[in-house]
Amino acid sequence: MSIFMQTMNSKLQYLNPALRRIADYVLDHLEQCKTITVNELATACEVADSTITRFVKEIGYSNFQQFKIAIAESLIHVDPTSDYEEKAIYEDIQKGDDTKEIIEKVYHQNISKMTETKNLLNVEALEKAVQIILTAETLIFVSTGSSSVATNEAIMRFTRAGKRCIFWSDSSMQMMISATASPNDVMIGISDSGKTKSVIQAIKSAKEHHVPTICVTSDSKSLLASIGDVVLYTPMKISKSENQKHFESTTSKNAQILLLDILYACFATKQYDKTIDNLNRTYQALKATREIV
């Protein structure tokens, strides 16, 4: 993902309606916007010229020209004539890559995802999520498929810290749990695409019962992102095709795990002594299950 797209994705959810309208227009008209004027963009978004200037500064650019240069540079990363998406079997791994090339590509993809995840984190949103978890009686997780890898990692951490956690992989059970959850609980929905139907349905059901919700996704324009009380973002994979035939790589899961690790660490420091006590107690419980050498 280009630096421009990463910046836009990290800021999008937290913009006011007028600035969000500008951001949505730019993302939908990247090619046009690399040569657009301030007045033309303002007219297209039905805002004042001064609002465009404020938007540009809000997302981190000193002036409109710098903003347009960033757009042009971001377009270099996407070749609309390329058939890469159909031929790639894992991120940018291509036919003919030797073992050394594959090692380097997979390594750098993972390092890149970790860095992007850190840059995408909004401190205010993270702290709000921590406060919800601190007061919640039970953490109810909903996810499917490979996102369940990150879910299980999070459950292990929070359980060891003394927090009661629930996770059913069956979507019917997820719906039943969401329907019977209490406002004193919190439901955490995890979906990389933000489009997983069962996760969205469970989050909607929880909200109907006034249960606080935290959502983890990579797509700020997804339905999941629009309904969560707090939304935390992982890096988005930019694709020219909605119909991707290759499987979802583990770099996305590693990004989810990193985000949830950070969330856990922030939570644990807020009740440090209690967490240490629970870690010691769970260590003693696990000790008997391990072979003594």
Give the topology.
Blueprint: H1 3-12, H2 17-28, H3 30-33, H4 38-45, H5 49-58, H6 64-76, H7 84-87, H8 99-120, H9 123-135, E1 138-142, H10 147-160, E2 164-167, H11 171-180, E3 186-190, H12 197-208, E4 213-217, H13 223-227, E5 230-233, H14 250-270, H15 272-287
Parallel strand pairs: 1-2, 1-3, 3-4, 4-5
Helix pairs in contact: 2-4, 2-5, 4-5, 8-14, 9-14, 10-14, 11-12
Q: List the strand order in the largest sheet.
A: 2-1-3-4-5
Count of helical segments?
15
Give the low-pLDDT segments. Answer: 79-86, 238-246
The shape, in one word, is globular
Number of self-contained structural domains: 2
CATH superfamily of the largest domain: Glucose-6-phosphate isomerase like protein, domain 1
Radius of gyration: 21 Å
Beta-strand share of residues: 5-15%
Number of extended strands: 5
CATH class (first level) name of the largest domain: Alpha Beta
> Kindly state the mean pLDDT as a whole number?
86
Cα-to-Cα separation, first versus last residue: 47 Å
For the sheet with most strands, the description reads: 5 strands, parallel
Proportion of residues in helical segments: 55-70%
> Helix and strand succession?
HHHHHHHHHEHEHEHEHEHH
> The CATH topology of the largest domain, please?
Rossmann fold
Helix-strand category:
alpha/beta
CATH-defined architecture of the largest domain: 3-Layer(aba) Sandwich
